[in-house]
Structures are given as C-alpha cells and as structure tokens.
Inverse folding.
C-alpha cells in the first residue's frame, strides 16, 4: 500500500523510549505556530513509498525497540500506517504515534481512527503550543501535549497517561 512520507530516520533515541525507527509522514493541516517540521505540511509534497519498503527497512535493524510515526499528521494517512503498525506490533515491537489532534478529537471520530489506534501503544497528542514549549518534557515539545496509554484509555474510556 502506498504512503506519502517526508523522511525516515533509521535509529533515533529522542522520539520515544529505546532505539526507534521513525517515519515522518507528509501532510499536516494543523499549522502549529513554531512547528519544527514545516516542510512536512504540504499534502502533495514529500515522496510516495510502499508500506513494504518501510517494513523492510525496519526489520533490517535487529536492535530497534519499536517504531514512531510522526509528521506531518499521521491520522491523515490512517490506513497505510495501520498496515505498518499491525505488522510491527504482531512481531512484538511497540508503536508510538505523534498527532496534532487531541485524544478527545480523535474519539469524536473513533471509528475512523481506531484502525491505527488499536495498534498504538503510546499516543503523544495535541498541537505544538509555542507558549508552552519546554525542553524538560520527556518526548514532548509543549506542556499541553500528553503521553497517553492507548490500550488503557480505550479500555477505560478516559485518558490514562503513560508512565515512562
Ligand atoms: S501537528 Fe506537528 S507537524 Fe503539524 S503543524 Fe503541528 S507541530 Fe507541525
């Protein structure tokens, strides 16, 4: 399945716990002031690759702990990302997704987004807020963003924060 991406980073230690493979998807409509990845906004930019290509690249590195799906806005490409996340989850790795949507907004369209959420371990939610920017937040850019335990939050039907 085709997916539009901005870039791939083979081994990151700043996009979640452990050693991570990071996919920066292309396309975002949130327009957060002070965004660090403005080149990822154009929904017609970046490049189109196959999900199999990303999976092949991921499995080349036996040291990885999991994958991080960032952007851009991952929930604009829920279906191809769910293909990637499912395969990686089934093989025992973990999945982190960064989104500019809040958890509450995603829950308004739960049926649409569940196909990716069901394979997501941790969701970093909410737009980047320049006024709440901090370097002291673990794996987050601004204080409004939350690290959410997706399985527990879906099970309990409320936001349960992830304890790193
Ligand atoms: S959601 Fe992320 S990529 Fe999109 S504008 Fe906000 S910070 Fe930038």
């Amino acid at each position: 399945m085709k997916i539009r991406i901005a870039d791939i980073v083979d081994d990151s230690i700043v996009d979640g716990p452990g050693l991570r493979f990071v996919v920066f998807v292309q396309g975002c409509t949130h327009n957060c002031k002070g965004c660090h990845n403005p080149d990822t906004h154009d929904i017609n930019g970046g490049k189109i690759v196959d999900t199999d290509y990303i999976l092949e690249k991921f499995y080349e590195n036996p040291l990885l702990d999991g994958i991080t799906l960032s952007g851009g806005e991952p929930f604009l490409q829920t279906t191809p990302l769910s293909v990637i996340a499912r395969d990686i989850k089934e093989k025992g790795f973990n999945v982190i997704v960064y989104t500019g949507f809040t958890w509450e907004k995603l829950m308004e369209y739960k049926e649409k987004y569940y196909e990716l959420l069901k394979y997501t371990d941790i969701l970093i939610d909410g737009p980047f807020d320049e006024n709440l920017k901090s370097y002291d937040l673990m794996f987050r850019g601004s204080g409004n963003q939350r690290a959410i335990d997706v399985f527990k939050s879906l099970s309990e039907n409320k936001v349960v924060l992830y304890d790193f």
